Amino acid sequence: MSAEIIDGKALAATFRGQIADEVNQFKTQTNVVPHLTAVLVGDDPASAVYVRNKQRSCEKAGIQSTLQRLPAETSEAELISIVESLNTDSGVHGILVQLPLPKQINETAILDVVNPLKDVDAFHPENVGLIVQGRPRYLPCTPYGIQQMILSTKMETAGKHAVILGRSEIVGKPMAMLLIQRGQGADATVTICHSRTQNLNEIVKTADIIIAAIGKPEFVTADMVKPGAVVIDVGINRVNDRLVGDVDFEGVKKVASAITPVPGGVGPMTIAMLLKNTLTAAGIQSGCQ
Ligand SMILES: Nc1nc2c(c(=O)[nH]1)N[C@@H](CN(C=O)c1ccc(C(=O)N[C@@H](CCC(=O)O)C(=O)O)cc1)CN2
Questions:
Q1: CATH of region 32-115, choose from 3.40.50.2300, 3.40.50.10860, 3.30.450.40, 3.40.50.720
Q2: Is the ipTM of this complex over 0.90?
Q3: Which atom of ligand 1 approaches the CA of 99 most closely?
Q4: Residue list, annotated binding site for NADP(+)
Q5: What is the CA radius of gyration of the chain?
Q6: Architecture of 141-267 per CATH?
Q7: pTM of the full predicted structure?
Q8: Which helix (H) or strand (E) holds 199?
Q9: Separation between Cα atoms, residue 92 and residue 35, nearest integer Å
């Protein structure tokens, strides 16, 4: 058996096309141009690439994008002050603070001050709370993209066992919330595994859906995967100049029914969902939703 490859690059292109049409319609109806401001602190090369890709995707979809680039030595107080001025700028609908931040800045302190209506990453506690309650304003971009990828496979998720590897605020925890909610592409039974989990391999082997987000190159191997499982790889690891995920793609694709590649899987969908959230944010702030 060889798995269906879930082509995130192609799916993201389809989404971006649909979002561009919706942006066009929105502009005609409201005379408002959705506007995202990204804040990038420091010189992390990967973060710079992701932010550039986000900006390019915005521009192609007709969304205005602005970059505030700040030096690596920026203090927490300085960053808070910049976010606060974006919060009150009525011309900015979405604020994105690229993570990770330099060591001297407490990420939580920053994410807590982003205006929740402009929080297109859905990292603010108010937006996290709304997700937990099953009435989201925005969905965090990576779990949102994964949800759309799972839906694209048309697999039945109700009652299935989804095992998430990793308990991060950005992926693991919100992904669990999306998978346990009621409805299509959800209604799953979820286990989150992490660095202190015992018998991790045995638990993963029972999964119908595996979401690997632990940042360990090619950690999930074929012997850990139940035949026919759907495997979503969130990892982006550079090993000897090669980009690999958290899943041993070549081995696992022989066992899984569907699998996402790295690159070209979850990453492009993360960016497409950011565009969707920015349009939603512009709608909310223009009184359209
Ligand atoms: N404010 C945020 N910070 C971070 C987020 C986030 O959602 N919001 N997620 C990650 C990084 N990230 C988006 O910011 C991101 C990572 C990777 C990709 C991507 O398209 N990857 C490509 C490979 C690109 C490469 O060569 O490195 C792929 O998988 O095909 C997009 C977005 C942490 N920070």
A1: 3.40.50.10860
A2: yes
A3: 3
A4: 166-168, 236
A5: 19
A6: 3-Layer(aba) Sandwich (3.40)
A7: 0.97
A8: none
A9: 5
